[in-house]
Amino acid sequence: MTDFDKVLVANRGEIAVRVMRACEELGIDTVAVYSDADKHSGHVRYADEAYNVGPARAADSYLDHEAVIDAAHQADADAVHPGYGFLAENAEFAGKVEETEIAWVGPTSDAMERLGEKTQARQIMQEADVPIVPGTTDPVTDPEEVQAFGEENGWPVAIKAEGGGGGRGMKVVRDPEEATAQLESAQREGEAYFDNDSVYLERYLENPRHIEVQILADHHGNVRHLGERDCSLQRRHQKVIEEGPSPALTDDLREEIGEAARRGVRAADYYNAGTVEFLVEDRDRDDGELLGAEADFYFLEVNTRIQVEHCVTEQITGIDIVKWQLRVAQDEPVSFSQDEVEVDGHAIEFRINAENAADDFAPATGGTLETYDPPGGVGVRMDDALRQGDDLVTDYDSMIAKLIVDGESREEVIERGKRALGEYEIEGIHTIIPFHRLMLEDDPFVAGHHTTKYLDQELDPERIEEAQQRWGTETEAAADDEEVTERTFTVEVNGKRFEVELEERGAPALDIGDVDTGGGGGQRPDRAGPDSSGGGGGSSTTAAGQQVTAEMQGTVLDVNVAEGDEVAPGDVLLVLEAMKMENDIVAESGGTVTEVAVDADQSVDMGDILVVID
Length: 614
Hints:
The protein is an alpha+beta fold and 614 residues long. Among the domains are: 6-105, 3-Layer(aba) Sandwich (Rossmann fold), CATH 3.40.50; 134-203, ATP-grasp fold, A domain (Dna Ligase, domain 1), CATH 3.30.1490.20; 352-439 and 455-477, 2-Layer Sandwich (D-amino Acid Aminotransferase, Chain A, domain 1); 537-613, CATH 2.40.50.100.
C-alpha cells in the first residue's frame, strides 16, 4: 500500500481548494499549479507550495502535459489529482503520469479511453445489459447515414462527438435537409474540443430527466453506487442546479438505475470515483406523477472523474468522495458495503457563476469582488476559492463558487436555499444568484416537474430580467484608494512562487495598470449559444472599411470567406470557438472582403481584427 505525503492538484479555483482540504485532513501536503493569470488566485494561496506552469492561455499552462508533470517532479509529489475539467478526462495525460513514479488519482488511462470514446462506452454498457438510447455503435461519416437513421428511428436525431460531453460536440438534426451542415459542425467541434472528429448517432429524446449515479470502485473488486443526482435544470446542456435524490423517481426505478450503473462500471474494469449518467423519459407521464417502472432509462455517458456536483452526494450520504479517491489511489479497499450506503435527507447545489442571467447569461469580463460575504448556518456548505478584494480571473470559466444546501426534506432545502441565497452578498460583478432565487419561487421547479428542456424552451426570459432587477447588485467598481501603502509582491524563483509583503510609509499608491503582472488572456463579453449567430464578433467602420473584430478570446474554427468575396448582411464570415460554444461571426453589412486577418486554428484575443469588408 502506498502512502501519499504530497499531492499536486492539476487544477484551479474552488475544485483545487476542495481537493486540498481533503488532503490536509488526511495529513497530505499540497502543491498548486498556476498560470500567469492565476498567480494571485485562492488555490495558490491555499496550497503548501505552488509552481507556475505557463502563460494565461490554458493550452500553454493548465493543459500543458509536460509543464504539469515537470512541476510534480520539482515538488517531489507522490500523486497528481486532476479535479474536473482541464486534464481530468484526458487519457493521454493520465497515461503519461502512469509512466512515471507518480501516482494518478483516478481510473486507469485504458479505462478512461474506453469510456471516453462514446461508441466504445455504448458497446460496453450494452454487453453489461445497461439500456442504451437507440443509435449507432460505429462512427458515421456520411450525411446519408444520418438521413437513413432518421427515417428508420424518427426525427429528431442527435449527432454526438465520441469524445464529447456537456453538450459539446452535439448537434440536433430535425429534418433530412439539416444532415450535412450539422454533421460537419459536430465533426468540427469534436476535432476542436477533443482532437477527435469521430461522431455517432442517437435518437434524440425530446423531454427527458437527466439522472446521474455516483459510483466508487477500488482495486479489490468492490463497486458501490452512492445514490443518484438529478441534473435536469440545464441551459444549453450545461447544468445550473443539481440535487439529490431526484424528486421524479420511484424507489424501485432509483434502485434499478443504481444497479445498472454498478454493472456497467464493473464491466468496464473501472476503479476510483466516477459518474454514470442516464436520460429518463416517460412520454405518457403527467406532471406530478413519479417516473416508475413504466419509464425508459438510457445510458448517456460515464464521467471518469469527480463531478462539479459531487458535493450533493456527500451531503446526503456523509461520504467524502475526494478522500476516497485518494484512498483508492493508495490501494485501500472501500470499507463499506452497498447496504451500508444510506441516503439521508435532500441537498441542492447552486452554481454561483459570474454571469448576468438577464443578458443571456453573458459571462463577466472582469471586475473585483468589492464585497464577498457568503452565507452560513445549519445545512449550508460553501465551496469557493475567492475572497473579498480578489480580482475575477475570466480566462477559463465563469464559476466562482458553489453553494450547497441540505436538510431533512426537499421542502426544507428550498426554504433554506431562499435564506442562504438571500444572505449571500457579492458586489463588484454580476452573478446568477438572482436567477437561483427565481427558481426557488418557480412553480415547475418547486414541484419537481422540470426537464432538461425547461430553461431553454419554457421559462419566460422576462421573468429572469425581473429577477435581476429585484435581486441584482450594483457592479460599479470603487475608485482605487490613493493612500494604500501595503503591497504584496509575487516572486518566482526557478518557477516556484513566493509572496513578499512590503510596507511603505507615505509612498504613493501603485497604479497596477503601470505594472506588467504577467497576466494575460482576453476578456469575454457576450456568449452566444451553439445555434446563435452574431455572437462573438463586433464591427466598426473606418476609412479602411468595416472591421469585424473579436468580442471575446477564442479560437478560429473555420474561415468561410476569402479576399475578393462578395458578402451580404448576415453571411457567416467565420466560426469562433469561445466559452465552450461555437459562435458564427456574421457580416453586419454587405460588401467586398478586402482582408482576412486570421486562419483556422488561430487563437484570437478580444478586439483582434478578423475580417475587413469594404
